[in-house]
Specification:
This protein has about 400 residues and is α+β, with helices and mostly antiparallel strands. It contains eleven helices and 16 strands.
Length: about 400
């Protein structure tokens, strides 16, 4: 599978000027391609092909006085900008036809020099390289200092240079990983080691073995500092240098929160994948929950990012990952006897099953039910590489609140 490895860049002043020029040229070519497509649509003409756009917007445009400065950057950067337009329209039409899952994808829009994120991409034919001294050499930009936090596992196929809202530069390398090598990095977990995860706000995650992981609440911790920074930004005159500095301070504060949250998600997801053969989570409607009064807490938790990490790491390291339906009554069902007690308000954190008199912790009980439901889903999907767990019959279950599990032969 393909993964991205990002490293911080520290360009010098002249290199920052060259990067800004490359960002601007790539943005102009992108906007010109979108305009050409929109003009063709308005005139009801066939869309111009990628080769026709390349000839018109890059090759011939370089020879005109209005676009002669396009020759000051690598042509690969401009070609990749056209590829981005093609991919954007392809995704848009696939979404219209229902061929693409997930949210509806809108039509490509024009880019602005004021966008918080700028990027350019260099493929292998751009002749970029990593020098012997550990610098990143880019055509018409120079050798840029890189802070290497780890060793690249393979030769990258491309590199994307990114400028984020906080003014930081990153190099994002695309790596083709080897599945056998990845699986050999860790020892196999104990046989039958599986876990169900119930995500929440009071605790970020409660595992089916009873482990409770507290929610760090990164955004809530720095909320006072962010309010002060936003207030100072609102008082600065638009277009002034002081406003630009204040905007940068706000962006850096938000960046620290996002980085801390991502690091927490990476560490927790890696630990769960390393220690378990199978992991089950509930498919939460995050977009719906983000429209309630709990919106800030839901965004602060970052469930979607965490579940995405679990999914790709399970695929990379040969673990089983199962999502159960969001309408599964995990909080309403007794994990001991299977009795469904109905919905309960959020302030009810413990409840006693009226059928078997078992006292349940709401989140722990839900995590056990997630694990049980995932066992049913895994056994029903054919012949998995790593067989899942199937719950025992309800009448065979003991009275401890711990379900008996039977291994599928």
């Amino acid at each position: 599978m393909q993964l991205r490895y990002a490293f911080r860049l520290y360009p010098e002043h002249g290199q920052r000027v060259a990067l800004a020029r490359a960002f601007g040229c790539a943005r102009v070519v992108f906007n010109d391609a979108v305009r050409a497509r929109e003009d063709a649509r308005a005139a009801k003409d066939p869309f111009p092909t990628a080769s026709a756009l390349s000839q018109k917007l890059i090759t011939r445009a370089k020879k005109t006085p209005e676009r002669s400065w396009l020759g000051e950057v690598s042509s690969v950067v401009l070609q990749q900008s056209l590829r981005d337009v093609e991919a954007a329209y392809r995704n848009f039409f696939a979404s219209l036809k229902g061929e693409r899952g997930g949210k509806r994808v809108g039509a490509p829009r024009f880019k602005s020099r004021k966008d918080t994120r700028q990027s350019i991409r260099f493929t292998a034919n751009a002749c970029w390289k990593i020098t012997g001294t550990g610098r990143l050499s880019l055509p018409k930009i120079g050798e840029i200092t890189v802070r290497w936090s780890r060793v690249l596992p393979a030769v990258p196929s491309s590199v994307t240079v990114i400028l984020d809202a906080a003014g930081r530069y990153f190099a994002s390398f695309v790596i083709d990983t080897d599945s056998e090598t990845d699986r050999a990095r860790w020892d196999e977990p104990e046989p039958g080691s599986t876990v169900g995860i119930d995500l929440g706000l009071t605790h970020f995650a409660v595992l089916s073995d009873g482990t409770k992981i507290c929610s760090p609440r990164f955004l809530r911790r720095v909320e006072k500092k962010l309010r002060k920074a936003q207030r100072e930004l609102s008082r600065k005159k638009k277009g002034s240098k002081n406003r630009a500095k204040a905007r940068l301070r706000v962006a850096r504060a938000h960046t620290k929160v996002a980085d801390a949250r991502k690091e927490f998600h990476h560490q927790l997801s890696t630990q769960l994948i390393r220690d378990n053969q199978a992991i089950a989570v509930e498919d939460l409607a995050v977009s719906g929950l983000a429209r309630t009064r709990l919106a800030k807490s839901v965004h602060d938790a970052g469930w979607a990012q965490f579940v995405t990490m679990l999914e790709y790491k399970a695929q990379r390291y040969g673990r089983m990952f199962v999502r159960i339906g969001r309408f599964e009554p995990t909080s309403q069902t007794c994990s001991t006897c299977g009795h469904r007690d109905g919905p309960k308000p959020l302030h009810v954190r413990e409840w006693t099953c009226p059928a078997c008199n078992t006292l349940h912790d709401r989140d722990h009980n839900a995590a056990i039910n997630v694990k049980q439901a995932a066992g049913l889903a895994a056994s029903a999907c054919g012949a998995p590489v790593r067989p899942g767990l199937v719950p025992a019959q309800r009448e065979e279950t003991g009275s401890h609140g711990i379900p008996l599990q039977a291994r599928v032969a």
